[in-house]
């Protein structure tokens, strides 16, 4: 009697694990080992909004960072000063400084060569003139001359966050301008990879925002390993955000990153960036 009950409990647990894992899988993308090697990148520029946004793409970053032949750079638009500390580890007025340092430490651990954290207002990028943000992105593009830019899809921003959407738009705007008016012979990156959210999880457990994201983001065409171990290390480095995953998903980070173990991208040539 006890053994059959135990069997039933185990069976239900296995079914529940499969169901949870299914939430973080996608049917559309081709699974490849490496986005950056797939296109033979020599210079990668990541354009994101907040300290810890790089946590969404640790698989791509650690892969690029480990290759001596690839220059890897990240720009983060804000210091994350308007975020919620989880847990609180500093005075509130110091949160931006703390989060900036956490992001710099994390990308260093990922092997990223260069990381600039700007001081645009956290939560206020939508109200910041696009030209100001694009000027910063443009300066970095001319410095690093990436052949691929990794950023957010401007209509969904991974999580429907306006700051994320704004950075995707700033990156696209800069790329389009460079294509039309090359500077010093550089006409911008050949590729752009958009960071996409897992659609099943977003539409089922992320509420209204999640449903909007799925409705407004393209289908992923590539996936690669997400280096879950590096994400766990990243949450330790981001000490002020250490409990973020537990808070957002109601499950421990080690469990979530065990299931959510891939990264999904929409990779296209920049000549195919849609008109917004
Ligand atoms: Zn963010």
What is the radius of gyration computed over CA atoms, rounded to a whole number of angstroms? 19 Å
**What would CATH call the homologous superfamily?**
LmbE-like
Integer tally of domains: 1
Strand content: 15-25%
CATH topology: Rossmann fold
What CATH architecture do you see? 3-Layer(aba) Sandwich
Any ligands, ions or cofactors bound here, and which?
zinc ion
Strand line-up in the sheet with most strands: 1-7-8-6-5-2-3-4
Helix content: 40-55%
Coarse shape: globular
Provide mean pLDDT, rounded. Answer: 96
The rounded distance between the terminal residues' Cα atoms is 63 Å
> By helix and strand content, what is the structural category?
alpha/beta
pLDDT below 50 for ≥5 consecutive residues: which ranges? Answer: none
Tally of DSSP helical segments = 12
CATH class categorisation? Alpha Beta
Please count the beta strands (DSSP E, at least 2 residues each). Answer: 8
**Order of SSEs, N→C?**
HEHEHEHEHEHHEHHEHHHE
Largest sheet: 8 strands, mixed
Note the topology.
Blueprint: H1 2-23, E1 30-31, H2 35-38, E2 43-48, H3 58-65, E3 71-78, H4 95-109, E4 114-120, H5 130-144, E5 148-152, H6 157-160, H7 162-180, E6 191-196, H8 199-205, H9 207-216, E7 222-225, H10 228-237, H11 244-249, H12 253-259, E8 262-269
Parallel strand pairs: 1-7, 2-3, 2-5, 3-4, 5-6
Antiparallel strand pairs: 6-8, 7-8
Helix pairs in contact: 5-7, 8-9, 10-12
Residues 49-50, 53, 161, 164 line the site of zinc ion.
Can you give a write-up of this model?
The protein is an alpha/beta fold. It has a single domain, classed as LmbE-like (Rossmann fold). The chain is built from 12 helices and 8 strands. The relative contact order is 0.18. The structure holds zinc ion. Zinc ion is lined by residues 49-50, 53, 161, 164. It holds the Pfam family PIG-L.
């Amino acid at each position: 009697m006890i053994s059959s009950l135990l069997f039933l409990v185990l069976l239900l647990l296995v079914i529940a694990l499969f169901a949870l894992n299914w939430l973080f899988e996608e049917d559309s993308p081709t699974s490849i080992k490496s986005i950056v090697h797939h296109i033979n990148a020599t210079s990668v520029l990541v354009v994101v909004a907040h300290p810890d946004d790089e946590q969404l793409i640790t698989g791509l970053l650690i892969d690029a960072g480990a290759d001596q032949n690839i220059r890897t750079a990240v720009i983060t638009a804000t210091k994350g000063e308007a975020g919620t500390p989880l847990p609180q580890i500093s005075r509130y007025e110091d949160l931006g400084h703390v989060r900036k340092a956490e992001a710099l430490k994390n990308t260093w651990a990922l092997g990223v060569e260069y990381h600039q954290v700007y001081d645009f207002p956290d939560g206020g990028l939508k109200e910041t003139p696009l030209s100001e943000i694009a000027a910063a992105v443009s300066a970095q593009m001319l410095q690093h001359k990436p052949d691929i830019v990794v950023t957010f899809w401007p209509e969904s921003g991974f999580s429907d966050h306006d700051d994320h959407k704004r950075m995707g738009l700033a990156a696209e705007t800069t790329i389009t301008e460079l294509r039309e008016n090359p500077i010093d012979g550089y006409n911008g990156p050949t590729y752009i990879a958009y960071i996409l959210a897992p659609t099943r999880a977003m539409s089922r457990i992320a509420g209204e925002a999640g449903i909007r994201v799925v409705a407004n983001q393209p289908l992923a065409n590539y996936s690669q390993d997400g280096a879950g171990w590096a994400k766990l290390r990243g949450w330790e480095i981001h000490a002020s955000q250490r409990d973020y995953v537990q808070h957002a998903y109601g499950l421990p980070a080690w469990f979530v990153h065990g299931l959510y173990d891939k990264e999904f991208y929409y990779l296209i040539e920049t000549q195919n960036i849609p008109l917004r």
